[in-house]
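Supplementary notes (optional reading)

For those who missed the lab, this is the record we used. Protein: Sugar ABC transporter ATP-binding protein. Length: 251 residues.
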Amino acid sequence: MERLRLEGVGKHFGAIRALDDVSLTLAGGEVLGLMGDNGAGKSTLVKIIAGNFRPSHGSIYLEGETCDFHRPRDAQRSGIEVVYQDLALCDNMSAASNVFLGRELKKSFGPVRIIDYRSMHRKAGELFAQLKSETRPRDLVRRMSGGQRQAVAIARTLLAEPRVVLMDEPTAAISVRQVAEVLELIRRLRDRGISVLLISHRMPDVFSVCDRIAVLRRGELVADMLTETTSPEEVTGLITGAIDSIQRVPA
């Protein structure tokens, strides 16, 4: 079932064309790898889907309904969550406090309302259990590995019961063991029926976890392929321009 669809999406910054007529689809429970060189337009595309930018032209559809996001909050309310490369975590706070950051649970004592840490710890623990992560709600983020930090960021997206999760370079600058943990977290999202758009420069990660691969070059979509029908060498050729373009996804 189609979850997200982009039709002819473009973004211009004055005379600079960051994106030009990009059309893509993302099904429910599918992981789509988005690849391209620096400046190819990957981050711009994600920011348009996430509501940070409005497209200069084109349309976005979420489960068949037209979307017009004016700000990130609009996209979040529609079920689109983002895990950015820097994760935006507070090192001096616990895992549970980071999961609920800005959405803290509170309880009332007459006219006084206080943060309900017990409920937050319990709910965060349930989310980590769903992800089969060893992260504990009371652990401080500054003492965590890269894989555990990703688990916190992903658990925060699950709190909102998302339909689409956008992930920007989640396996950058972490160890091989931690990469395996993060890729397993992505599979857990897919198993829950959540659609994932994964931006990555790491070819092994994309081929390990993605159902499809799309390649952007200079703001244009030059390939949209089932992972099983391509190879790292071919994708590299598409990224660099050695291969012009390919479309192999069945209509």
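If you only remember one thing from this example: The chain has a mean pLDDT of 92.
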